Amino acid sequence: MDWTRGYIADVGYTAGFYRETAPSHMAFAALLMGRSPGRAYRPKRVLELGFGQGFGLSLLAAANPDVAFEGYDFNPEHVAHARRLIQDAELQNVTVTETSFEEAAARGGDNDLDVIAVHGILSWVDAVAGDAIVAIARQRLQPDGMMYVSYNCMPGWAPLAPIRQFMLQVKHRHAGRSERQLGLALDLITKLKAGNAHYFLANPSAAQHLEQMLKLDRVYLAHEYLDEHWKLFQFSDMVTMLGAAKLAFLASATLPENLDQYAVPAALSELVAQTDDPILKETIRDYASNKRFRRDLFARGSASLTSTEHRRLLTELKFALVMPREQVSLQFGGPLTMLTGVPELYAPLLDLLASKNASFDELMEVFPRSGKPGILLDCLGLLVHSGQVLPIVGGEAADAGPAQRFNRAVVKSLKAGRIYNALASPVTRTGIGVGEVELLALAAVFDNQAEDVETAARYALSLLVGMGKRPINDGKLVDDDGEALKLLEERLRVPLQDRVPIWRRLGVL
What we know:
- The strands form five sheets. A seven-stranded mixed sheet has the order 3-2-1-4-5-7-6. A three-stranded antiparallel sheet has the order 11-8-12.
- By secondary structure, it is α/β, with parallel strands linked by helices.
- It starts with about 20 loop residues before the first helix and ends with a helix.
- It has helices spanning about 25-30, 55-65, 75-90, 100-105, 125-140, 160-170, 180-195, 200, 205-215, 220-225, 235-245, 260-265, 270-275, 280-290, 305-315, 345-355, 360-365, 375-385, 400-415, 435-445, 455-465, 480-505, and strands spanning about 45-50, 70-75, 95-100, 115-120, 140-150, 250, 295-300, 320, 330-335, 340, 360, 390, 420-425, 430-435, 470-475, 475.
């Protein structure tokens, strides 16, 4: 029997960090809605099902060394990669197991988990594996525990699904590895669009989707489009499925989707408000925004909060600005369109956060709408959604040692040519997004080559050359060393001058 069972396994999945898998983000999403964060507020044991390369799981373990993390994945390549990350960072609080969900479900469990994360798995596994995921949740998630699931959904995928079906047909008719099958499929479907196939003329969104696909990582596309099992859920399908584990929908982990002033057209706001059934209400929101991917939080018996309890928990929250004040944008991506923040509301909040990590109550004191914590919470929700501010949930910061070892391991991987997209912060207990330039700056800091930007640029260039790379400007390689150094000085100046102090405040280094 083929152990892959139709799942793409000849190329490993991409290694990324997804902030919605962090318990701190889950807890804040619940509080944003006035709901109890349950055991996600101060978790002790967390499980990720289908952890891919294990980068996100390892990062969260590094940022939360007082929490026990587990991960299950059936792909030996994924498990081996995750174990290398864990070993390099000398993490003691995370274990990864090569196992199928069915095997894990057969082992049982005894309500020992506070949080379960299942990112992008349920859309790509067969019904047997899906039932096993539900069984694991039923066996192991404690009352008041929280589960995060993300999945492709209707109605947004309706006009796009034929693209996937076409690519799968190409795969079935061409032997070989996934990379070859993907290349053939993309070539054929691109020619269809270029030749004015009426499918694309009748579905402009499909044409736009294909253009976006061609810009994405090929490994990601293989896993997204060539897997044998691919299900498009209605929201109500997921409610029914997880209801078998006594789980009930709590909120969207995509924060603006919980706020109707951003999530539905104004003409439909009254319809949403008049809909009493919570499942139908959420379905109306999906159709109103033509949603095609959901990030949902489900809770097992999570109690409602009184207004007094909610306000007390808000008082315990702090917030951290994770980028330079002058670079903050008040343009926020919403479910329907870009949202623009009112500068008069945000300026005093950002000014305070630029000086220190501030509590909700401290932010309330400087907020122009005095006495309206709900409006402040909405503003903070958009800042958190944009990734410019992070909530600090659950009290004291964690021991910084594991996170800093992990971040050194990330820089070590950079030198070997493998680039990861985040660093661990023990203060915010989650990840801080970074790119290659920020990692080069951090490498210079770690290796005592950052006394000035010129020295850092020379060191960064030596690292790039050692990896067989050159700086790129306007899509072209910069071969001249003098020009390359000047370009690197320009690009490294901001992370060295502005990001490094922020990283120190967040415990990254």
